[in-house]
Protein 1
Amino acid sequence: MLGNPLTWDDLPWLRSLTDLPLIAKGICHPDDARRAKDGGVDAIYCSNHGGRQANGGIPAIDCLPAVVDAADGLPVWFDSGIRSGTDIVKALALGADAVAIGRPYVYGLALGGVDGIVHVLRSLLAEADVTMAVDGYRSLKELTPEAMRRVT
């Protein structure tokens, strides 16, 4: 596979192989979101290409609003750096339709097995609920990019 990587030109071929949902992952540029949509994907997965391998890129959360705009109604999923319920709320406010996590549930697994995973997921959801309540948001529909303010 590494000797013959897939390119954008291969996307229609890949789409023709299955009726299963096709999701393009690692999308952080609006041009790539448009190419993926034009190639027939069912969703865009905005994420970095492995923060543990490539540590110096633009944070995916900074790319999310432009990717959502370019997706033009196609579902956009997000991950990359999600460590808290507050991170989940931010990603949803910036336009993500769904948010995934990586490391936090693995930490829970390592420390407590399945019970550890359940604890991590419950903690993330509880923190997201508290963040929304404290900030005055009653539903996910109220989370919009206008609700965000960049603090430097």
Protein 2
Amino acid sequence: MCSAGCPLTDQMDRLPSQVIRDLQQDDITLLESNAMWVCASCLACEVRCPKGVDLAKLMEALRQLHLRKELDHVSIDEMSPQEIAKLPQIALVASFRKKTG
């Protein structure tokens, strides 16, 4: 039910229901998933969830865990010059500040 309400499941490598199951099983590979980055926090999953799980908050918590491990979701070194040119300047500044403290 939760996954059926999500407008972005076609872009996620794990469905919202799989994210919940992986959390229950302490599956550390969940931090390598793109689902937490794709989630728009639109709350469609929470509205449809019969258990009232706030998946948007869980996705935010996963993003925070990932960032605290200082793992980059996207490496600037792997981006083309065209992609870098399209990045907002604030993203580059934030990345620099994250690396330099």
